[in-house]
Write a structure and sequence with these properties.
With 264 residues, this protein is of the alpha/beta class. Helices cover 36% and strands 16% of the residues. The chain has eleven helices and nine strands. The protein has a six-stranded parallel beta sheet, sandwiched between helices. It has a three-stranded antiparallel beta sheet with strand order 5-4-6. Helix 1 crosses helix 11 and helix 6 runs parallel beside helix 11. Helix 10 links the parallel strand 7 and strand 8. It has two domains: 158 residues, 3-Layer(aba) Sandwich (Rossmann fold), CATH 3.40.50.1220; 83 residues, SIR2/SIRT2 'Small Domain'.
């Protein structure tokens, strides 16, 4: 389909959002690059600078675990420690106003929660880099606590509860997608009447299957991304634009605010 100009596209996006009753927002790396977080696959992205550590290697090889934890504690990947940008805050306004029911995200940076969205309304398909979990019992561990023993004594983290291997709560290459977030994302997608993609190239499956699922279920589909995607042809609206400025313009700052006595 033809894409509109930026100005008319932002107006179309505002109408798309206004018309939605049960909106689901789906976010990819493009919303977080505006906070200074590098994406994964583009030239200069994370994986062009360091090779990913596969899940099987992390489990089997202590040296790979040590390398993974060195990366995590040094912040080399750059996935944590940033602030939400205008795009995150616009999405948060949609959730706070009851316009958006859920945010499905491919990101691991915790920025949707940091923008004020309740954690139960954020569905993280690829996990979260801001904390760690035990691979055996799923006990949560805070990175700051684990970092102390690693930096002082070189201790590779193990679970304080069961002694199992501990890993950052991200889904690594070769690791099975978690069933519970996938089921929640499917339920939210099938229950929405509008599905908004923000900053995803839509090439990583199974996550990229949710926009198609929404469209095939009768929901309106909008895609806002700097580059074209293979799913543009299925969308009712395609806008090639910066996420923050586009969403800031399309989502009123006072969305959901109580009106005065004159109804204005």
């Amino acid at each position: 389909m033809q894409t509109p100009s930026v100005a008319s596209g932002r107006a179309d996006l505002a109408r798309f959002i206004a018309d939605a009753r049960r909106l689901v927002v789906f976010t990819g790396a493009g919303i977080s690059t505006e906070s200074g977080i590098p994406d994964f696959r583009s030239p200069g992205g994370v994986w062009s600078q360091m090779k990913p550590i596969y899940f099987q290697d992390f489990v089997a090889d202590p040296e790979k675990r040590r390398e993974a934890w060195t990366r995590a504690f040094s912040g080399r990947a750059g996935w944590t420690g940033r602030e939400p940008n205008a795009g995150h805050h616009a999405v948060a306004r949609l959730v706070a106003a009851g316009k958006a029911t859920h945010v499905i995200t491919q990101n691991v940076d915790n920025l949707h929660q940091a923008s004020g969205i309740p954690p139960e309304q954020v569905i993280e398909l690829h996990g979260n880099a801001s904390y760690a979990t035990c691979l055996e019992c799923a006990e949560r561990h805070e990175l700051a606590d684990l970092k102390i023993g690693f930096e002082k004594a070189g201790e590779i983290p193990y679970c304080r509860r069961c002694g199992g291997l501990v890993k950052t709560a991200t889904i690594s290459f070769g690791q099975q997608m978690p069933a519970e977030p996938m089921a929640r994302a499917e339920a939210a997608t099938l229950n929405c009447d509008a599905f908004l993609v923000l900053g995803s190239s839509l090439v990583v499956f199974p996550a990229a299957g949710f926009p198609l699922m929404a469209a095939r279920n009768g929901a309106s589909l909008a895609i806002v991304n700097r580059e074209a995607t293979e799913q543009d042809a299925y969308a009712d609206l395609v806008l090639h634009d910066e996420i923050g400025p586009a969403m800031n313009e399309a989502v009123p700052a006072n969305l959901g605010a109580p009106q005065d006595g004159n109804g204005t």
